[in-house]
Amino acid sequence: MTEYIINGLFIIVILMALGLLVYSRNPQSNMTNKQRKMLLRILVATIFLLVIELLPSSLFEGRLGYLFNLTLYLIDYLIIGYDILLKALKGIKNKQVLDECFLMTLATLGAIALALYERSSDYTEAIAVMLFYQIGEWFQSYAVGKSRRNISDLMDIRPDFANVEIDGKLQKVDPDEVAIGTIITVKPGEKVPLDGIVCEGESSLDTSALTGESVPRDIKAGDDIISGSINMSGLLKIKTTKEFGESTVSKILDLVENASSRKSRSENFISKFARIYTPAVCISALALAFLPPLISLLFNIDPRWHDWLYRALTFLVISCPCALVISIPLSFFAGIGAASKEGILVKGSNFLETLSKTKIVVFDKTGTLTKGSFEVSCIHHSKLEDEKLLEYAALAESSSTHPIAQSIIKAYNKPLDLNRVKDVKEISGNGITATIDNKEVAIGNDKLMKNLNIEYIPCHSIGTIIHIAIDKNYMGHIVISDVIKPNAQKAIASLKKIGIQKTVMLTGDTQKVAESVGEKLGIDSIYSELLPNDKVDKVEDLIKSKDSKAMLAFVGDGINDAPVLSRADIGIAMGAMGSDAAIEAADVVLMDDDPLKISKAINISKKCLRIVYQNIVFAIGVKLLCLLLGALGIANMWLAIFADVGVMVIAVINAIRTLFTKNL
Fold first, then answer.
1. Which of 91, 280, 363, 579 is the most exposed place for a label (fewest CB within 10 A)?
2. Which residues are catalytic?
3. Contact 220, 167 (CB under 8 A)
């Protein structure tokens, strides 16, 4: 019966390998040549073993038949295990003996030696151990490759060249050689090589590799443009504002490439565990092989050397810590890859682990929860049509570079005939007076209206109030405010939904503005009129007052947020519009400035840690049970294969789940 089950298992392996080899021909499989060759080896070794098993026993009778049988098994053993043998020899040579390759080699060669000693001619177990170990290694390789592809997709943003006009002709130049202020040309379909400002042309940009968003972004002359995006349609001329080393694309690649070097506590624990665990099980296996027989000899009992040696070899196969050593780092690697696919850059698996324990999220306001740019939000008490009132305001402000003036001009969004404007006077701290169409126009704050003795209507809205009077007659006022980001309210709600205990907003803005924004968004605590040092002090106070196991995350974007980002347990920076200092100080960078991605990042980290703990408990639990059964002689080599390779495959498949973030 056992023979039929084993042969059935080999047939399943053959069908699986054949199916995967066929699938590997599909371009979407992204399978490497190394993985295809490994599959082919598994297929050849399994078919070879099945053929040996099915050959008539009469072929192996006598001395020559015995040697022929042994030769066939050894050929198959070398087909599937030659690389493991070489790695084990290399480990011995480099004095790094106690690894999984050494354990596999010792266990399988021991099983062959035991079969030779017993003259059983059954070497199936030894080859099966190596075969199923290689199957587990293939699954691990494929899983790592899949998570690497998420990151390598991001690596595709690296530009190969920049088009620079030299002597009237476009020439391809290494991006490293392009100086600040150079005019570069980006053709349709090309990557934007350096950060800059569009000085000519209009186009749509594919920023999916940077932000995870599939919707193209329209761009025109005067707009900022970041490297790494792909020009989809029109020809663009860009004036560079940063060298390649300081450009967005360069910094992103640096962050991702160095992420795996920062180990989490779980990974460090597994590394230390493996260093202690592997020598311990080797000593235990040695003791299991020799102590019981020696004790039996003392009492004149049959020592049953071969029985205890078989138990020791089974014990070695069971004890191999592959499932933990492979699946735990893989889970974190997959988590970082999954986050990068969503436009969330995590600088290391230690930060991914910390992020999962976040219970308090502290926000900067301007540029984080709000857009950080002034916009006309409403017009009140207008005695003219709103558009006409905006036209007078835009004409009066046409010569000003102040952000308030620019927001009015942007809101009007029509060509301005500056010949209509005369005698423009700027009154510091008050506003502007001008003659427009031979009419006296005054535009400014309450003080300006009082100074000109014009009766105005006070406004109770939150924001900057711009009153307008024509020929001393009050015409209404425009409210200009920093606009809340579209997803800000959803972001706060989603954080509370996933278990964040407290949300806090820190801002240098006035109390009235801060409270208005905080109430609209549903922020728990609001602190206003803070200087950069005050923000650090406030975060210090929040850290001292919180539970030691609860982590505090700070989300910011400005250069003044860098000290707070560094001080928080986990710093999250808005990457697309954030300052270089903020991105440098942060542990996590959101590439599209969408605050809704914060809950997504926390969910990815929580899922990653759940999978890590599942794998730790499952792998250690199954191994301890099987080790006990092996020591008692209840477990055979087939159960050992499951305890080692089976557990590893299950743990690796579980780790792959970290890559899927669609419903998070």
1. 280
2. 364
3. no
Contact criterion met (CB below 8 Å) for 52 and 122: no
Q: Kindly state the DSSP code that residue 206 receives in the 8-state scheme.
A: E
Distance CA 625, CA 311 (A): 14
Beta-strand ranges (E) seen in 496-537 are 502-506, 525-527
Are 575 and 593 within 8 A, CB to CB?
A: yes
The phi, psi pair for 148, rounded to 5°, reads -65, -35
Q: Other CB atoms closer than 10 Å to residue 540's CB: what's the count? A: 13
**Rg of the chain over all Cα atoms, to the nearest angstrom:** 35
DSSP per-residue codes, 553-602: EEEE-SGGGHHHHHHSSEEEEETTTS-HHHHHH-SEEETT--TTHHHHHH
348 phi/psi in degrees, rounded to 5: 180, 160
Q: Are 182 and 235 in contact (CB under 8 A)?
A: no
**Tokens coding 153:** 């997709």
| CA 656, 99, 127, 315 torsion-angle sign | negative
For the chain, what's the residue count?
664
Structure-block tokens of residue 122? 């059954």
Is CATH 3.40.47.10 the right assignment for the domain spanning 349-369+485-586? no
Rounded Cα distance, 374 and 69, in Å: 84
Average predicted confidence (pLDDT) for the chain:
80
Numbered ranges of CATH 2.70.150.10 in the chain = 162-251
Q: Which token pair is 135?
A: 């199957």
Domain with CATH 3.40.50.1000 in the chain: 349-369+485-586
Q: Residue 625 burial by CB count (10 A; 0-12/13-18/19+): exposed, middle or buried? A: middle
Residue 305 near residue 552, CB atoms below 8 Å: no
What is the CATH number that goes with domain 162-251?
Answer: 2.70.150.10
Question: From the centroid of its chain, how far is CA 546?
Answer: 27
Tokens coding 357 = 């324990």
Q: Do the beta carbons of residue 606 and residue 598 sit within 8 Å?
A: no
The mean pLDDT values, 10 residues at a time, for the chain of 664 residues are 59 72 65 81 87 80 83 91 88 74 77 73 78 77 61 56 83 85 88 88 74 64 82 87 74 54 58 70 81 83 80 74 71 81 82 91 87 81 88 88 80 89 84 91 90 89 85 91 86 93 86 85 89 83 88 81 83 69 75 87 92 86 80 74 74 81 72
Q: What is the pLDDT of residues 45-56, one digit of tens each?
A: 888 888 888 888
C-alpha pair distances (Å), 389 with each of 420, 437, 616:
15, 14, 68
**Cβ within 8 Å of residue 245, ≥6 positions away:** 176
Query: CATH 3.40.1110.10 residue ranges in the chain?
Result: 372-484
- Angle, helices 488-497 vs 597-631, to 10°: value is 30
